[in-house]
Every structure is written in C-alpha cells, then in structure tokens.
Amino acid sequence: MSLNKIVAECTEWFTDPDFTRLRALRDGSPPMRMIGLFPVYTPEEVVMATGLLPVHLYGGGTMVEIDHADSRLQSFVCSISRTTFELGLTNRLDAFEGMLFPSICDVSRNMSGLWRRNFPGRVAEFIHFPENLTSAHSVPYLKHELKRLEEVLSKVSGKKPTDADYHRVFDLLNRHRRAMDEIYAARAAAPWNVPLVEAYPILRAGGMMPREQHLPMMEEALATWRARQNKAQDRIRVIVEGSFCEQPSVELLQTIEEAGCYVLNDDLLLGQRWFTEPLPLEGDPLEALARHIMEHCVPSAVHHPGPLGRGAALVQKARAVHADGVLFCMAKFCEPALYDYALLKRAVEAENIPHLAFEFEEKMGTFERRSSNPSSSFPDPGERSWETTSTSIRERAGISRRTCSAIGSIGSPRPPRRESPSRISSSAATSPSF
Amino acid sequence: MTALQCGIKKTAGQYILKAEELGYSSDVCGYVKNDIGLLHSGNASPMGTLPPPSLLVCNYSGCRTYVKWFEALAEFYKAPLVMLDVPYKREDMLDPGDVQYVVGQLHELVELCERMTGKKFDMDRFRSDLTETALAEDYWVKILNSSRLVPSPFDAYFEAVFFMAPLYVLRGHPDCLKYYKAAWGEIEERIEHGIGPVAEERFRVVVEGPPPWPHFRSFWEMFKKWGVVAVASTYSKVGGLYDQGVRHDPARPFESMAEYCIDCYTNWNLGLRRDLMRRYCEDFHADGMVIHSVKSCRSFSVGQADTREVFSKEYHIPTLFLESDLADPRYFSAAQLRNRIDAFFEGLEHRKLVGAPHAGVTP
To answer: Would you call B295 and A126 a contact, using CB atoms and an 8 Å cutoff?
Structure first.
C-alpha cells in the first residue's frame, strides 16, 4: 500500500463519527468486542488480554455538533469530555461494551459516574493510578486495581486471561510501541522526510484498529519515510507540548508545519506510547505491569511526580532534538496542561529556550467566545476565526531562523484580562426546573 | 484554608490576578491561583503569614487539583512533598484494599516524620486525640441533625460553613471539643426559644456545591429574603461525612483515619452523591434543591448539570441551578443570580399555594 493510501485509510478510522469500521469488526466473524478508553493512558494490556479490543477515543473532534451533552456538562468543561459524551448520547458508541476512565483529572473521574448513570448496563470503570511514587504499597495496590479491572472485563468477554495471554499481548504492544518510537526517531532525525500531518493520522489510527493489523502499516510507512530524500528547509525546529489528552485538529498541526516549523517531538497521543521501556515477557504479568506503570512511564502532566521533574524532562526533550523552541499547545479548559504550563514555562525560560503558548479546542472557530489564558501570548482561538488564527500562527511562527529568538519575546506575558460573568454561563444554567 | 479566608475577606481578587500574570489560566481553580498569587506577593494574608514548611503533605482526597497545587508549593518552597494517595470511592462500599493502601502510607508518613524530627511517634497521644475528635464529631452530627426540626434552628449551609471549621483546623485539640459543646449549647437554646437563622422559615432547601466566598453575605441575603433555610448541604461534608457514620476511632486509629480520608463527599462517586442528596431532601423535608455550580471546582461541578436533570425530571424535586465561583470575584453576577433565585422561589410559593407535595415525594 502506498503511503498516501495508508494515510487516507488511517484518517478514515478516526474521522468517521459512526465508527463504521469498528462496527464491521463487531459484526464480523468472529465478532470483535471493544472497550473505549478515555485518554491519557488506560491499561489496554488488560483489555486485550481479556479478549477485547481497546479503542483510544479522543472525543468527537470536528465530527459532531454538541446538541445533547450541553444540557449535562457545563461550558467550562473541556471539549473532549463534552464531545465524548455527545457520541454516547447520540448512540454512536453502541458498538462498545463500555468505557474506561483513568485517574488523570477530576473531569475524567466524574465522567465515569456520568457514564454509569446515562448508559446503564454498560461498563464504566474508573482506574486509579497511585500518585505516591515513594510508597512501598503503590505497586501492590496498583496490581490489586488491575486485577479488579481484569475481573470486570472478564465478565464482559467471558475470557479469563492466563499469564501466556498477557505475555503475548505485552509482546505485541512492545512491538507496536517500538514502531511508534521509531517513527518519532525518524521524524526527529529528518523531519523534512516525515511530516507530522502524515505521521499523526497513522499513529492515531493505531489506537483504534487491531494492533496486529496496524503494525505492518506503520512499518511500511516507516520504510517509505526512511527512503525519502527530501531537501531540508530553513524552518524552526520545535517540540509541541500540552496536547496529551484532547487532540488538536489535523488542520492545526498542518498550520504549525506550514507556518514554518518542523515538529521534532510532541506529546500527542501520549497514552499510546506510555512506556519508556518494553514490558517484561516473563513473571507475574499484573505485578510487572503495575511496576512498569509506576517506574517506566513517560513524564506527563496527568501524574505526579511534580513539574520539577517534568520541567527537567521537557528541557531534556527539547535539547535531545536540538529544538529551537517549545510550542505549548494546550486544550482549552484542560486543567493538567494549564497548571503545568505556569511551571514548565519557567523551566524552559531558565534554560533560555524560547516558547510560545496557545490554546485550542476541538471545534475551533465554531465555539462561543471565550477568554484565553491571560498569560498566553497567542491569539485567543475563541475570538478569531480559524483563518485568522492560522494567519496569526504564520505571522508569529512563520519566520526564518534568524528571527527565531523572537519566539522568546512572543512568549512573554500579556496583561490579564477580566472575564465577564456571563462568559461562564452555560446552556445548563437556564431557568429553574420544576 | 488560606485561600478560603482570602475569599471571604475579599482579598482574593488581587492574588488571582497575580497568579494569572505568572502564567495561570483564567480557567483553573481560583483557590490555587489565590494561594500562588499570595505566595508571590509577599505571603501576607489577612490572617498573617504562614512560616515556610519543612515538609509538604498533600492528601488530595476528592480533588486532583491539589496534586498540581502542592507541586507548585513544592517548587516555591523547595520543600519535600509527600503525596498521600487516596483512591476515589469508585463503588458504593469501601474497598478494603483501598483502606489498607492508605493505612500503609500513613505508617510510612509516621516513619518519615520520626526521621525528620528525631521524635518517636506517640501512639497514646494519637489515640487520645482521636477520642476527643470523635466526641467533637458526635456533637457536630447532633447540630447537623437539628435541622430536621421544622422550623430548623440552624442553617446547614450558610451557618454550617462556619460551624464546621474547627474540625478542619483544630482536630484533636481540646479547644475543638470545647467549641462543639458550646455550639451544641447554642443550638439547644435556639430550639428552646424557637429561634432560627431566618425570622420566618418559608422554604427548606438542600444545597449542593461550595459557596461564593467573595460574595458570601450578599449570596445569603438573596435566600434570606425569601425565608429560605438550608436544612442540609453537601459542602459541609467535604471534610468528612460524619452524619453518614464516619468517625475517627481510637480503637482503629489508622484504619479509621484512612476511612475518613476516603469517605469525604467529593471523593464519593456521583451515584453515592446523588443518593445522599435525595435522602437529604426526603429526611429533612426539603421543598427543593439548590445547586451552586462553581467553575473553579470540577470535582464538584462536573456532573451537577446531570444531577439537575435527575432531580427535576426523575425525582420531581424542584431544582435551582446557579453558576458563579468559590474564589474568583469576577464570576459573581448579582443581578443574574437574584433573578434566578427570585424566579425559583416564586415558583415554589405557587406550588405551596396549590398544595404540591414536598420534595422527594413523587406526585
């Protein structure tokens, strides 16, 4: 299959609001049963070992209008939660046996409760990941939590996994994650050969389709990219940070590249490449998975240890690929990203790494007017049309290497703006109900 | 606690703006921004200045924002941070594995404190403090349950937020028990003399969500003018669901402390919260529910709009949904709130005139 065909095929997987391909798998022979995973990382190893297909869901993006979820979730709740809920309320997730919500933020936590009430009879589980990294009790506790999940999912699938089942899944996911890491390495080494707009759709579809079916597609794409001999251009080398949960649209990623940037690394789709080392293929699998989650996961905003460690990790990430700067590309209302930004920006400033911050929403340009992060130096997406925002990225980021240092000044704070109370009024807050 | 105090003493706004200058978004918790802004403004709060900590312990029970908050404090103070991990109460019953996990961490915390201070942990003192605490908790529950009386001698939201404070900041201290004995004496006296929080009780409501601290008085007045008494509230349970049987227990010191951590209101799953609110409506003879949704606190607010749907459409309990914030004074729109509150109680008044049943009773 040509690279263009692979990209097109993969794009179809995550831009179809009715999940036609997944429905076909469910109705196939043998039928495949599936579980939706809310970002960032959810133990997909347990889902696969119990015979179910884990499907990373990143909301409805630009695919759906929020008609029903607005009456149940206020407008200050992040877009990914509202569109995911909309997908459920409009029966688009009927093919799924249920949803798993990891302990990444209070919204995800409460979404598990919303799901239970609104979709009775479906699986709606909240997975608690220990935040105490120094406790001797964290790994045993997490093993207990993974076992609980296994029991819930085994009831759905009717399959109780053996150690060998787990080790087969670990092996497949190790190979799948290694292929993703290789794509990232190829992009960091020669970004002119591996544009993000090509790599992203392929990586994203890998969280949806059966992994053994997706792995050859990545390998084929990688071979094509490695064989390319595109000429390097004079572009700004950046890493994109802050999009680990809600995903920016492909159009926004394209705009960043077209504005004159090479994206050498990012935290997009972070949960799909959660580990820094392969999972061990021997011993007690749940014990090993629990230890791996505690000791070998990538630094992220959704888990302790704190931003001191993450700040150092971000600086190292930028240095490793010789990045000129950091683009903080954060989802509107995403608390983990927005809290971390204040500290991470100090960490990169301390190392004289230029940075630029902006917020996005899944459906940029069609959302109501909202105030932006006051310290953000970037135009408020809610206040500008997509075209204007795009132009602004080009105006601000589409500059030559000589003016790269200007990114630092772009990153300086602007005065805070007061927000009128009416801005937070949601459609949920209407007249009294009787 | 500092952020709350700054809110009610009307100094929060300047600190929130300071934090926003430092890079914090207008969309994150006002408590956090208040605290961070205060630290970066000389740390002189209206109550004084807290000394720098030697150790930070974050028990983020019921609110993951505390993880971020304490990470920022650790960065500012350069102090070691212990994240006392408290699992969410995912199911209706306590998971013994969750309790043992918290107990294990509490023992580790004891060892760490012993190493840092060079002092041996005093188990007798611990048990004695828990004994005193449990007695104070008993009095607090008696006060909370007094609002079952009609008319109620006590406002379980607007007054409870003050009455509950010693159990947060003086737990185990002899003054704590002394306070609750005196407070119960006050309630008994009110009952004896027929005194209540409003001159004439006309409406009884259950309130969900935190108060808007920077506009606390004016918010309360909007209800008082209608003769409204909050007979039960959920915010007064964020520091412990004592009225649901939670108690510190000297016979099970660490276990009861772990259970207390897990059994705080915002650490409960939404189903448990919903059932509790419904029980409150029924047991305290409420006329309706008031949901105060605050932007700052997703832990409280995500799910509240769904709760409104359930209460109004399935339980047929009149429900008022309001939005502002607990810390950020910019989000309080007095005219808008007053209009909604007035409209709601006009509706309730009409229901009373036509003889509609109490909340929780399906017509």
So the answer is: no
**Are A255 and A394 part of one and the same domain?**
yes
Q: What distance in Å separates residue B180's CA from the closest CA in chain A? A: 33
Q: Is residue B63 part of a domain?
A: no
- A-facing residues of B in 19-38 (CB < 8 A) are 19-29, 32, 36
Please report the pLDDT score of residue A410 as a whole number: 38
CATH number for the domain harbouring residue B163 = 3.40.50.11900
What sign for the dihedral angle of Cα B335, B341, B347, B352?
A: negative
Task: For residue A340, give the chain B residue with the closest CA.
Answer: B68
Share of chain B above pLDDT 90, in %: 91
Domain co-membership, A314 together with A406? yes
Label residue B98 by pLDDT band (50, 70, 90): very high
Instruction: Tell which of A70, A335, A380 to mutate to test the B interface (max B CBs under 10 Å).
Output: A335
The helix or strand, by DSSP H or E, that contains position B206, with its residue range, turns out to be: strand B203-208
DSSP state of B155: -
Q: How confident is residue A377, by pLDDT bands cut at 50, 70 and 90? A: very low
pLDDT of residue B1: 81
Q: Which residue of B has its CA nearest to A102?
A: B88
- Tell me whether residue B102 is in a domain: no
Task: Provide the pLDDT confidence category of residue A305 given band limits of 50, 70 and 90.
Answer: confident
Shortest CA gap B216–chain A (Å): 16
Q: Give the confidence band of A23 by pLDDT, cuts at 50, 70, 90.
A: very high
Q: Does B267 touch chain A (CB under 8 A)?
A: no
CATH code of the domain containing A129: 3.40.50.11890
Q: Which residue of A has its CA nearest to B67?
A: A304
Question: Cβ of B295 under 8 Å from any chain A Cβ?
Answer: yes
Query: How confident is the model at residue B155, as a pLDDT?
Result: 98
Q: Is the dihedral of CA A248, A251, A254, A260 positive or negative?
A: negative
pTM: 0.91
Each residue's pLDDT tens digit, B230-244? 999 999 999 999 999
Average pLDDT over residues B125-135: 96
Task: With CA atoms as reference, report the closest residue to B263 among B271, B272, B254.
Answer: B272
How many Å lie between the alpha carbon of B174 and the closest alpha carbon of chain A?
32
Cβ-defined contact of B347 to A434 (cutoff 8 Å): yes
Residues paired with residue A265 on neighbouring β-strands, in sequence order: A239
* Segments forming the whole domain that contains residue A274: 234-417
Mean pLDDT taken over chain A: 86
Domain check: are A133 and A253 in the same one? no
Q: What is the pLDDT of residue A333?
A: 96
pLDDT at residue A401 in the model? 37
Residue B360 reports pLDDT greater than 80:
no
Chain B residues in contact with A431 (beta carbon < 8 A): 340, 343
Residue A388: pLDDT over 90:
no
pLDDT at B286 (0 to 100)? 97
Q: Does A208 reside within a domain?
A: no
Cα nearest neighbour of B82 on chain A: A132
pLDDT of residue A149 exceeding 90, the answer is yes
- Which residues in chain A (57-96) have CB-CB distances under 8 A to chain B? 71-74, 76-77, 81
Look at B323 and A117 and tell me if their CB atoms are within 8 Å: no
What are the chain A neighbours of B57 within 8 Å (beta carbons)? none
